[in-house]
Amino acid sequence: MFLFINPGRNLPPSHHSMYEMLSFWTYDWKTHIIIPILKPGKDPSSALNYRPIAISSTLSKVMEHLVKNRLEWILENRGILSRTQFGFRKGFSTMDSLSILVSDIRLAFSKN
């Protein structure tokens, strides 16, 4: 059994346009062609030696990019993400994470 609801009607106005943008995603945009690519130096007779590559619609890729950019902007500008969230964020790296770790370790040692 499935419960179908309209989440768009409960969204604040700033997020409603995002919902409307996603609501017309067509079936063709959700369909991908899977192409098996042989891994370098592997035996072609074994299915385990192939890497599946999904080819999607150009319009789908453009739409995904627009949605990603909009979500990133909302999350960054409204301070929704934690200050310690570094993965998949522009301008942050492993060094930022390590810097906070070292700082926390020094703070813990200074309290002892």
UniProtKB/TrEMBL annotation:
Source taxon at top rank: Eukaryota
Name of the protein this chain belongs to: Reverse transcriptase domain-containing protein
